Amino acid sequence: MKMICTLFLFSLLFSSTYALDFCVGDVKGPESPAGYLCKPSAKVTVDDFVFTGLGIAGNTSNIIKAAVTPAFSAQFPGLNGLGISIGRLDIAVGGVIPFHTHPSASEVLLVLQGKICAGFVSSANTVYLQTLTKGDVMIFPQGLLHFQLNGGGTPAIAYVSFSDPSPGLQILDFALFANDLSSALVEATTFLDDAQVKKLKSVLGGTG
């Protein structure tokens, strides 16, 4: 009887472990800070664990001349709950990913093509800056302001990976100048004059 009970307990343990192997996100539902709810296992397919979009160049015909192709949990449901994600970064000549932060994740950047000047600023306002070439890797700690710009005369490509399936993004320039915060408040908090603030708001779509 003792042996039967032991085997039964092992069976329950194995079944529970197997059931928790993954939690493919139900991306049709809402996303919370903990991620998406799990899709029913009967509806999970191999396609949930495969993403094929990183071989396609992003559209860099925009104001920053750059593009990010995300493979986060919203686009890649199999990542849900696994603590990882990836994306492709395309930066045209003269392009830049402006100062931004990822509130939920640290970032690793791997250069595939071209030159990328990249850096971040610590909470002590120390600048860590490097020009990266093919095969170089740089890390950006979670929550710190960082940027990437094309450092050469040819298009640059990189893969970026994150320590969260939904790393979040806040771009500093857009946070300041692409909303309806009054120009007077922006001027007071940035030490910019009225003409500069209103010019940037007009460029980035802000009002006020």
From TrEMBL:
Residues 1-19 form the signal peptide. SUPFAM superfamilies: RmlC-like cupins. Gene3D superfamilies: Jelly Rolls. It comes from the Eukaryota. Disulfide bonds join 23-38. Its main location: secreted. One of its GO terms (cellular component) is apoplast. Mn(2+) binds at residues 100, 102, 107, 146. One of its GO terms (molecular function) is manganese ion binding. The keyword Manganese applies. Oxalate binds at residues 102, 107. Pfam families: Cupin_1 (PF00190). Belongs to the germin family. This is Germin-like protein. It comes from Kingdonia uniflora. The lineage of its organism: Eukaryota, Viridiplantae, Streptophyta, Embryophyta, Tracheophyta.
